[in-house]
Amino acid sequence: MGKLTSMLGLLLTHPLEFRTLVHFYLYHETKRDITAQQEHPTSGWDRASMRRCWEFLDMTSRSFAAVIKELDGDLARTICMYYLILRGLDTIEDDMTIPDEKKQPILRQFHNLTVTPGWNFTENGPDEKDRNLLLEYHIIVDEVNRLPPQYKTVILDICQKMENGMADYAHKAATNGTVYLETIADYDLYCHYVAGLVGEGLTRIWSASGKEASFLCDELELANSMGLLLQKTNIIRDFREDVEEKRFFWPREIWAKYGFNEMKDMYKKGDVEHATWIQSGMVLDALRHACDSLDYLRLLKNQSVFVFCAVPVSMAMATLALCFMNPEMFQRNIKIRKAEAAHLIMRSTNTREVALIFREYARKIHHKAKPHDPNFLKISVMCCKIEQWCEQNFPSFVMLGEKGPIYDSADKRTVIFRAEEKRVAERLAVDPRNAPLPQDLFPWELAAYLVGAMLLMLGLSALIVWVMLKFIPQA
Q1: Residue 232: which of 293, 179, 275, 176 has the closest Cα?
Q2: 197: helix, coil or strand?
Q3: At what angle do helices 351-368 and 338-347 cross, to 10 degrees?
Q4: Distance separating alpha carbons of residues 136 and 133, to the nearest angstrom
Q5: What pLDDT is attached to residue 475?
Q6: Alpha-carbon distance 123 to 217, whole Å?
Q7: What separation in angstroms does the CA of 158 have from each of 94, 145, 161, 193, 224?
Q8: CA geometry: angle at 230 spanning 338 and 237, to 5°?
């Protein structure tokens, strides 16, 4: 009833968004049903333990659960387990009720505990939202040990790298009371541990599955950059919530130069102008990773893997555009509207469309930028880099038609292209090597070749018979 009421309210207040949501619910079909009988060998739905893992995935992340379930073959089950392992690790690291002396050995041995039969963790605080995952972690352990070795090795390796980084930051927080990141380099390193490594693991799994090229596992810089784009977007959006919970991820290098002593001063002092300048600095830093993310998407060939990667980065660009120069972000946690999210999901099906999405939001960011902002010029350059990437890879004067590419006659580049096309045709026409063979002679030449070949074969056969009769004595 509540959903129906909200849809009716949306129809009255935002009719275009209502239409988008209706289109999404009617026409966007799920690509795969993991509960179907034919999917059981790869999804594991026929096992009670794996069904419980799928339930945990729905409970811990509804947004990621949908795209994970649509991955091809055993990738869905593998990424489900990968997500749950890292969610369990993150739950222990985030729980401030666990003493540091207890937390450190668990974090640094989590990759071993994950494959220890029967292990679970019961000492989370009562308010920790994902504590049930760790209470029943022995189920996760059972399913991890069922994974093929090529996947299991990658997941445990990433878990070990991530747990050490998390343990270092948890120890720093316990020792100093809070964690402040001083420089942008510190910020990048933190985001690498919590998100860049996730991208590295996913990339190695894509390659190990055979569904993506083997060389993809070497493109770890691009994978890390895409992970940083997603993580930095979340950090920007969740500013108010993080500050209230004493999690300070914005680097001092960006905000301290504007006269703020603490991050909470950005919304308590009422200095909106300087706060939005800091906000634009954070968005600028996140946009550094936009073109790398597009480069990464260009390398993907499996459609389910592409959608899995493309939808989050498209939503990240939409979120950055929403947060940019928006003072509301300092007061509450803001999110893109459901209809916009549905529209992005339906559009994020190929690299060209995702590039156009990036360009649209880059233009919105540039339109909102203010000349008196110290970051104005850098923001403009970064938005132009996204424009340049789109033009270089998908020129705007070339449009897709039903019978092939169509060239925009109003664009001067079409004139240049047509002139070059004409010059190439003329050059080929005068080359004697490209002269067509006389049609009336060609069949006679072919017949002559065939007759000659047959006569040669008959002659050789006759010669062999004569030699046998002449020189081999008869019995």
Answers
A1: 293
A2: helix
A3: 140
A4: 5
A5: 46
A6: 37
A7: 18, 16, 5, 9, 12
A8: 60
| The token pair that represents 430 in the structure block | 């005068």
Which run of H or E residues covers position 400?
Answer: strand 398-401
Q: Do the Cβ atoms of 328 and 10 come closer than 8 Å? A: no
CA torsion sign, 292 to 351 to 84 to 159? negative
Distance between CA atoms of 184 and 191, rounded to whole angstroms? 10
Give backbone dihedrals phi and psi of 401, rounded to 5 degrees, phi first.
-120, 175
Q: Which two tokens stand for residue 193?
A: 């541990």
Look at residue 233 in the predicted model and tell me its pLDDT: 95
Torsions phi, psi for 9 (to 5 deg): -65, -40
**Residue 357: is its pLDDT beyond 90?**
yes
How many other C-beta atoms are found inside a 10 Å radius of the C-beta of residue 200?
Answer: 23
- Chain centroid, CA 31 distance in Å: 18
Length of the chain: 475
Pair type for strands 404-407 and 398-401: antiparallel
Q: Which of 255, 252, 287 is nearest to 378 (CA)?
A: 287
Measured between alpha carbons, how far apart are the two ends of the chain, in Å? 104
Q: Strand, coil or helix: what is 248?
A: strand
Q: What is the pTM of this model?
A: 0.83
Do 321 and 363 meet the contact criterion of CB atoms below 8 Å apart? Answer: no
Exposed e or buried b per residue across 137-172, where buried means at least 16 C-beta atoms within 10 angstroms of its C-beta:
bebbbbbbeebeeebbebbbebbbbbbebbbbbbbe
Mind listing the pLDDT tens digit for each residue in 173-193?
788 766 788 899 999 999 999
Report, as residue numbers or ranges, the catalytic residues: 190, 237, 247, 308
The H-or-E segment that residue 404 falls in is: strand 404-407
Bridge partners (DSSP) listed for residue 407:
398
Q: Which two tokens stand for residue 260?
A: 């703020």
The residue among 352, 345, 350, 358 whose CA lies nearest residue 302 is 350
How far is CA 27 from its chain centroid? 23
